[in-house]
Design goal:
By secondary structure, the chain is an alpha+beta fold. It contains 13 helices and 17 strands.
Protein backbone atom coordinates (compact mmCIF):
# COMPACT_ATOMS: atom_id res chain seq x y z
CA UNK A 1 0.00 0.00 0.00
CA UNK A 2 1.16 3.51 -0.78
CA UNK A 3 0.36 7.16 -0.26
CA UNK A 4 -0.16 9.62 -3.09
CA UNK A 5 3.27 10.88 -4.18
CA UNK A 6 2.43 14.51 -4.83
CA UNK A 7 0.55 14.86 -1.55
CA UNK A 8 3.40 13.21 0.37
CA UNK A 9 6.06 15.46 -1.18
CA UNK A 10 4.02 18.60 -0.57
CA UNK A 11 3.49 17.59 3.06
CA UNK A 12 7.17 16.86 3.72
CA UNK A 13 8.19 20.23 2.24
CA UNK A 14 5.67 21.88 4.53
CA UNK A 15 6.78 20.32 7.83
CA UNK A 16 10.58 20.03 7.61
CA UNK A 17 13.59 22.11 6.55
CA UNK A 18 15.97 21.04 3.81
CA UNK A 19 18.78 19.84 6.11
CA UNK A 20 16.40 17.41 7.81
CA UNK A 21 15.22 16.12 4.43
CA UNK A 22 18.87 15.41 3.55
CA UNK A 23 19.30 13.55 6.85
CA UNK A 24 16.29 11.35 6.13
CA UNK A 25 17.54 10.69 2.62
CA UNK A 26 20.88 9.59 4.09
CA UNK A 27 18.97 7.08 6.22
CA UNK A 28 17.25 5.68 3.12
CA UNK A 29 20.62 5.41 1.37
CA UNK A 30 22.01 3.57 4.39
CA UNK A 31 19.09 1.13 4.26
CA UNK A 32 19.85 0.56 0.56
CA UNK A 33 23.48 -0.13 1.50
CA UNK A 34 22.30 -2.60 4.18
CA UNK A 35 20.17 -4.47 1.63
CA UNK A 36 23.08 -4.65 -0.81
CA UNK A 37 25.51 -5.80 1.93
CA UNK A 38 23.90 -9.23 2.11
CA UNK A 39 21.65 -11.26 4.37
CA UNK A 40 24.07 -11.32 7.33
CA UNK A 41 23.87 -7.52 7.61
CA UNK A 42 20.26 -7.14 6.47
CA UNK A 43 18.96 -9.48 9.18
CA UNK A 44 20.67 -7.41 11.90
CA UNK A 45 19.15 -4.06 10.96
CA UNK A 46 15.97 -2.56 12.39
CA UNK A 47 14.62 0.91 11.60
CA UNK A 48 14.73 3.58 14.30
CA UNK A 49 12.31 5.44 16.52
CA UNK A 50 11.34 8.76 18.03
CA UNK A 51 12.53 9.27 21.61
CA UNK A 52 9.95 11.60 23.12
CA UNK A 53 8.90 12.64 26.60
CA UNK A 54 6.28 14.92 28.18
CA UNK A 55 7.56 18.21 29.55
CA UNK A 56 6.70 17.18 33.11
CA UNK A 57 9.41 14.89 34.55
CA UNK A 58 10.74 14.53 31.03
CA UNK A 59 14.12 13.11 32.07
CA UNK A 60 12.54 10.02 33.65
CA UNK A 61 9.67 9.40 31.21
CA UNK A 62 11.34 9.04 27.86
CA UNK A 63 9.44 6.81 25.43
CA UNK A 64 10.60 5.12 22.22
CA UNK A 65 7.89 5.45 19.57
CA UNK A 66 8.50 3.10 16.66
CA UNK A 67 6.51 3.82 13.50
CA UNK A 68 5.97 0.90 11.14
CA UNK A 69 7.76 1.72 7.85
CA UNK A 70 4.95 0.58 5.55
CA UNK A 71 1.29 1.49 5.27
CA UNK A 72 -0.72 -1.64 6.05
CA UNK A 73 -4.21 -2.82 5.06
CA UNK A 74 -6.56 -2.37 8.01
CA UNK A 75 -7.43 -6.08 8.03
CA UNK A 76 -3.77 -7.23 8.25
CA UNK A 77 -2.64 -5.61 11.52
CA UNK A 78 -2.79 -8.81 13.57
CA UNK A 79 -0.45 -10.52 11.10
CA UNK A 80 2.00 -7.59 11.31
CA UNK A 81 2.04 -7.75 15.11
CA UNK A 82 2.50 -11.54 15.11
CA UNK A 83 5.46 -11.20 12.77
CA UNK A 84 7.12 -8.61 14.99
CA UNK A 85 6.59 -10.55 18.20
CA UNK A 86 8.12 -13.69 16.66
CA UNK A 87 11.19 -11.76 15.43
CA UNK A 88 14.18 -12.48 17.72
CA UNK A 89 15.97 -9.26 16.81
CA UNK A 90 12.89 -7.16 17.54
CA UNK A 91 12.45 -8.89 20.90
CA UNK A 92 16.12 -8.28 21.80
CA UNK A 93 15.84 -4.61 20.89
CA UNK A 94 12.60 -4.00 22.80
CA UNK A 95 13.68 -5.88 25.92
CA UNK A 96 17.04 -4.05 25.97
CA UNK A 97 15.37 -0.65 25.64
CA UNK A 98 12.90 -1.56 28.38
CA UNK A 99 15.77 -2.65 30.64
CA UNK A 100 17.35 0.76 29.95
CA UNK A 101 14.31 2.47 31.49
CA UNK A 102 12.63 3.45 28.23
CA UNK A 103 9.02 2.68 27.39
CA UNK A 104 8.56 1.04 23.98
CA UNK A 105 5.48 1.73 21.87
CA UNK A 106 4.84 0.63 18.30
CA UNK A 107 2.48 2.52 15.96
CA UNK A 108 1.13 1.23 12.66
CA UNK A 109 -0.45 3.43 10.00
CA UNK A 110 -3.27 1.62 8.19
CA UNK A 111 -5.79 2.24 5.44
CA UNK A 112 -8.41 0.41 3.43
CA UNK A 113 -7.28 2.01 0.14
CA UNK A 114 -4.41 0.75 -2.02
CA UNK A 115 -3.35 4.34 -2.81
CA UNK A 116 -4.29 6.44 0.17
CA UNK A 117 -4.74 10.08 0.86
CA UNK A 118 -3.12 11.09 4.12
CA UNK A 119 -6.57 11.86 5.52
CA UNK A 120 -7.48 8.16 5.03
CA UNK A 121 -4.66 6.90 7.26
CA UNK A 122 -5.61 5.62 10.72
CA UNK A 123 -3.27 4.72 13.58
CA UNK A 124 -3.10 1.81 16.01
CA UNK A 125 -0.78 1.89 19.01
CA UNK A 126 0.75 -1.12 20.79
CA UNK A 127 2.71 -1.20 24.03
CA UNK A 128 5.61 -3.63 24.41
CA UNK A 129 5.11 -5.56 27.65
CA UNK A 130 5.96 -9.09 28.78
CA UNK A 131 7.36 -9.92 25.33
CA UNK A 132 4.09 -8.97 23.64
CA UNK A 133 2.68 -5.96 21.79
CA UNK A 134 -0.59 -5.01 23.50
CA UNK A 135 -3.01 -2.61 21.85
CA UNK A 136 -3.89 0.36 24.05
CA UNK A 137 -6.26 3.34 24.06
CA UNK A 138 -4.20 6.01 22.26
CA UNK A 139 -6.45 8.93 23.14
CA UNK A 140 -6.51 8.09 26.84
CA UNK A 141 -2.74 7.59 26.88
CA UNK A 142 -1.97 10.99 25.38
CA UNK A 143 -4.47 12.77 27.61
CA UNK A 144 -2.05 12.07 30.46
CA UNK A 145 0.74 13.92 28.63
CA UNK A 146 -1.02 17.29 28.44
CA UNK A 147 0.30 20.44 26.82
CA UNK A 148 -0.51 22.58 23.83
CA UNK A 149 1.88 21.35 21.18
CA UNK A 150 1.87 22.41 17.56
CA UNK A 151 3.17 20.97 14.32
CA UNK A 152 6.49 22.19 12.94
CA UNK A 153 6.87 24.21 9.76
CA UNK A 154 9.45 23.65 7.09
CA UNK A 155 11.72 26.03 5.24
CA UNK A 156 12.70 25.99 1.54
CA UNK A 157 14.70 22.92 0.58
CA UNK A 158 18.10 22.97 -1.08
CA UNK A 159 18.30 21.76 -4.66
CA UNK A 160 19.81 18.40 -3.67
CA UNK A 161 16.99 17.68 -1.21
CA UNK A 162 14.31 18.49 -3.78
CA UNK A 163 15.95 16.42 -6.49
CA UNK A 164 16.72 13.35 -4.40
CA UNK A 165 13.36 13.27 -2.61
CA UNK A 166 11.51 13.53 -5.94
CA UNK A 167 13.56 10.60 -7.31
CA UNK A 168 12.55 8.20 -4.50
CA UNK A 169 10.30 5.27 -5.31
CA UNK A 170 6.88 5.46 -3.68
CA UNK A 171 7.62 2.79 -1.04
CA UNK A 172 10.70 4.70 0.15
CA UNK A 173 8.77 7.97 0.15
CA UNK A 174 6.02 6.34 2.23
CA UNK A 175 8.56 5.07 4.79
CA UNK A 176 9.93 8.62 5.18
CA UNK A 177 6.45 10.14 5.37
CA UNK A 178 4.90 7.90 8.04
CA UNK A 179 7.16 8.86 11.02
CA UNK A 180 6.75 12.56 10.16
CA UNK A 181 3.00 12.14 9.82
CA UNK A 182 2.88 10.36 13.18
CA UNK A 183 4.86 13.11 14.94
CA UNK A 184 3.40 16.22 13.30
CA UNK A 185 -0.21 15.13 12.71
CA UNK A 186 -1.03 12.56 15.40
CA UNK A 187 1.07 13.88 18.30
CA UNK A 188 1.22 17.59 17.54
CA UNK A 189 -2.00 18.34 15.64
CA UNK A 190 -4.53 15.73 16.81
CA UNK A 191 -3.47 15.41 20.46
CA UNK A 192 -1.54 18.71 20.78
CA UNK A 193 1.22 17.03 22.79
CA UNK A 194 3.94 19.24 24.26
CA UNK A 195 7.24 17.37 24.15
CA UNK A 196 10.65 17.97 25.67
CA UNK A 197 13.81 17.76 23.51
CA UNK A 198 12.49 15.14 21.03
CA UNK A 199 15.13 13.11 19.21
CA UNK A 200 15.06 10.33 16.66
CA UNK A 201 17.29 7.26 16.69
CA UNK A 202 17.98 6.46 13.05
CA UNK A 203 18.26 2.69 13.42
CA UNK A 204 19.58 -0.28 15.37
CA UNK A 205 21.98 -3.11 14.66
CA UNK A 206 21.06 -6.23 16.65
CA UNK A 207 23.75 -8.90 16.73
CA UNK A 208 22.80 -12.56 16.47
CA UNK A 209 23.50 -13.00 20.19
CA UNK A 210 21.05 -10.21 21.05
CA UNK A 211 23.33 -7.18 21.60
CA UNK A 212 21.79 -3.88 20.55
CA UNK A 213 23.69 -1.00 18.91
CA UNK A 214 21.83 2.29 18.24
CA UNK A 215 22.86 3.97 14.98
CA UNK A 216 23.02 7.64 14.06
CA UNK A 217 23.28 8.45 10.34
CA UNK A 218 24.24 11.86 8.97
CA UNK A 219 25.28 13.35 5.65
CA UNK A 220 28.48 15.43 5.94
CA UNK A 221 31.78 16.38 4.37
CA UNK A 222 35.00 16.98 6.35
CA UNK A 223 36.38 20.47 6.90
CA UNK A 224 39.80 21.77 7.90
CA UNK A 225 40.49 22.78 11.51
CA UNK A 226 43.44 22.95 13.90
CA UNK A 227 42.93 19.17 14.27
CA UNK A 228 43.37 18.68 10.51
CA UNK A 229 40.48 17.14 8.53
CA UNK A 230 37.51 17.16 10.93
CA UNK A 231 33.90 16.05 11.20
CA UNK A 232 31.38 17.59 13.58
CA UNK A 233 28.92 15.59 15.69
CA UNK A 234 25.88 17.15 17.39
CA UNK A 235 26.56 17.07 21.14
CA UNK A 236 22.93 16.26 21.85
CA UNK A 237 23.21 13.15 19.69
CA UNK A 238 26.13 11.93 21.77
CA UNK A 239 24.18 12.47 25.00
CA UNK A 240 21.18 10.65 23.54
CA UNK A 241 23.34 7.68 22.49
CA UNK A 242 24.93 7.59 25.95
CA UNK A 243 21.48 7.62 27.58
CA UNK A 244 20.49 4.53 25.61
CA UNK A 245 23.82 2.68 25.66
CA UNK A 246 25.02 3.19 29.24
CA UNK A 247 22.17 1.38 31.06
CA UNK A 248 22.73 -1.58 28.71
CA UNK A 249 26.53 -1.29 29.07
CA UNK A 250 26.38 -1.20 25.29
CA UNK A 251 27.93 0.74 22.44
CA UNK A 252 26.61 2.68 19.45
CA UNK A 253 27.54 3.53 15.86
CA UNK A 254 27.78 6.94 14.21
CA UNK A 255 27.58 6.61 10.41
CA UNK A 256 28.44 9.37 7.93
CA UNK A 257 27.34 9.43 4.32
CA UNK A 258 30.31 11.45 3.13
CA UNK A 259 29.51 13.73 0.21
CA UNK A 260 31.50 16.19 -1.85
CA UNK A 261 31.05 19.94 -1.48
CA UNK A 262 29.26 20.43 -4.78
CA UNK A 263 25.64 21.51 -5.00
CA UNK A 264 24.67 17.97 -5.96
CA UNK A 265 26.34 16.51 -2.83
CA UNK A 266 27.57 13.41 -4.63
CA UNK A 267 28.45 10.36 -2.53
CA UNK A 268 32.17 9.96 -1.73
CA UNK A 269 31.82 6.95 0.59
CA UNK A 270 30.50 5.65 3.89
CA UNK A 271 32.43 6.30 7.12
CA UNK A 272 31.72 4.92 10.59
CA UNK A 273 32.88 5.30 14.17
CA UNK A 274 31.71 4.02 17.55
CA UNK A 275 30.52 5.78 20.69
CA UNK A 276 33.67 4.81 22.60
CA UNK A 277 35.79 6.39 19.85
CA UNK A 278 33.75 9.60 20.07
CA UNK A 279 34.14 9.78 23.86
CA UNK A 280 37.87 9.14 23.77
CA UNK A 281 38.93 11.10 20.68
CA UNK A 282 36.69 14.18 20.56
CA UNK A 283 37.77 17.76 21.22
CA UNK A 284 36.53 19.07 24.56
CA UNK A 285 35.86 22.55 23.17
CA UNK A 286 32.31 22.65 21.83
CA UNK A 287 31.59 24.62 18.67
CA UNK A 288 28.40 26.35 17.62
CA UNK A 289 26.50 24.19 15.17
CA UNK A 290 23.52 24.66 12.93
CA UNK A 291 19.86 23.92 13.63
CA UNK A 292 19.63 20.32 14.80
CA UNK A 293 17.32 17.53 13.77
CA UNK A 294 15.73 17.54 17.20
CA UNK A 295 14.98 21.24 17.19
CA UNK A 296 13.60 20.93 13.66
CA UNK A 297 11.16 18.26 14.81
CA UNK A 298 10.03 20.48 17.64
CA UNK A 299 9.83 23.54 15.44
CA UNK A 300 11.98 25.52 17.84
CA UNK A 301 14.94 26.31 15.56
CA UNK A 302 17.40 25.89 18.42
CA UNK A 303 21.07 26.12 17.48
CA UNK A 304 23.02 23.03 18.49
CA UNK A 305 26.51 22.56 19.92
CA UNK A 306 28.98 20.47 17.95
CA UNK A 307 31.69 18.08 19.12
CA UNK A 308 34.69 17.95 16.77
CA UNK A 309 36.30 14.64 15.83
CA UNK A 310 39.39 14.06 13.71
CA UNK A 311 38.49 12.51 10.38
CA UNK A 312 40.83 9.59 11.09
CA UNK A 313 38.57 8.55 14.01
CA UNK A 314 36.24 7.22 11.30
CA UNK A 315 36.79 3.98 9.37
CA UNK A 316 35.43 2.89 6.01
CA UNK A 317 32.10 1.12 6.49
CA UNK A 318 32.16 -2.42 5.07
CA UNK A 319 29.82 -5.41 5.36
CA UNK A 320 32.42 -6.94 7.69
CA UNK A 321 31.95 -3.96 10.04
CA UNK A 322 28.73 -5.64 11.20
CA UNK A 323 29.98 -9.21 11.32
CA UNK A 324 29.67 -11.07 14.61
CA UNK A 325 33.47 -11.09 14.89
CA UNK A 326 33.56 -7.29 14.62
CA UNK A 327 30.56 -6.62 16.86
CA UNK A 328 31.51 -8.88 19.76
CA UNK A 329 34.55 -6.87 21.00
CA UNK A 330 32.59 -3.60 20.71
CA UNK A 331 29.58 -4.57 22.77
CA UNK A 332 30.58 -3.33 26.23
CA UNK A 333 31.18 0.41 26.16
CA UNK A 334 33.30 0.33 29.32
CA UNK A 335 35.58 -2.40 27.96
CA UNK A 336 35.97 -0.56 24.65
CA UNK A 337 36.89 2.66 26.45
CA UNK A 338 39.46 0.79 28.57
CA UNK A 339 41.05 -0.64 25.43
CA UNK A 340 41.21 2.86 23.96
CA UNK A 341 42.85 4.12 27.15
CA UNK A 342 45.51 1.40 26.98
CA UNK A 343 46.26 2.26 23.35
CA UNK A 344 46.63 5.92 24.34
CA UNK A 345 49.05 5.03 27.16
CA UNK A 346 51.15 2.92 24.80
CA UNK A 347 51.26 5.78 22.33
CA UNK A 348 52.28 8.25 25.03
CA UNK A 349 55.11 5.99 26.14
CA UNK A 350 56.46 5.89 22.58
CA UNK A 351 56.90 9.67 22.76
CA UNK A 352 59.51 9.22 25.50
CA UNK A 353 61.27 6.40 23.69
CA UNK A 354 61.91 8.20 20.54
Amino acid sequence: MQVRRNEALEYLRRVMPGHKALGLLAQKDFESWVRSAGEQVRNKYFSGCWVVSPKQNFFSRRTCFFVHPTLEPTNSLNDVISGLVSNRGFQSMCSSLSAAGLAVIYFIGHSSSDESRMADIGWKGYRYRNEQLEEFDVRRFFMNWGGRGRASRGRPWEGAANRRMSELDTDSLTSILLPQLFYNDLLKTTYRISTQDPYDVDGFIISFDGKVFPIEIKEKFPFDSTMGPTLGVDAGRVLMMLRIALPMDGNAFYVVRQVDESERRELVGWKITTLDQIVMKCSWNLQAGGPGMASSAAGAGTVTSTILLPYNAFDNMLPSTFSEESLRPLWKLGDSVKRQAQHFLTDLERMFIG
